[in-house]
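Box 3.1 A note on notation
Throughout this textbook, protein chains are presented in two layers. The first layer is the amino acid sequence; the second is a token string describing backbone geometry. Keep the layers aligned when reading.
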Amino acid sequence: MEKHGRIEEGVEDTNKEKRRHRRFSPKVLAFAALRPDFFRLGRIRNISKSGVAFEYLDYGEDEENSRPKDSSQIDIFVSRETFHIMRISCRLVYDVRVDYTGSFSASLFENRCCGLEFTDLTDEQERKLDFFLKNHVTDVQRLM
């Protein structure tokens, strides 16, 4: 199985042109969860000062209400730590299926990757995001 899977053709190239800030990969186990019901919870793939991409499993239940909306709020937190950024306003950039070749989960549920742009960060959210970026990430460019 590939480390991150393959995202549908054209998605990353299209979004790369629009990014304002450099992306980083967490070097700790970090998660994003969509509010209000936290139905979509997943591991962060990359993060920047202006947005986040995370993978989640779509169980196919209540598809209309369970997928990310055009505008939402998310929480970001780190496993085994008290670090937590709550209620970050964001805008949906993409939500696509991820193809994991040979994955057992292909028949049970769908692997998806969601890209969100942060909007209207509060001063406290900006401070916490800066702390996360200074202390918990690795440069994505070095990993490719």
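The first strand starts at residue 6 and ends at 7. The CA atoms of residues 61 and 109 lie 10 Å apart.
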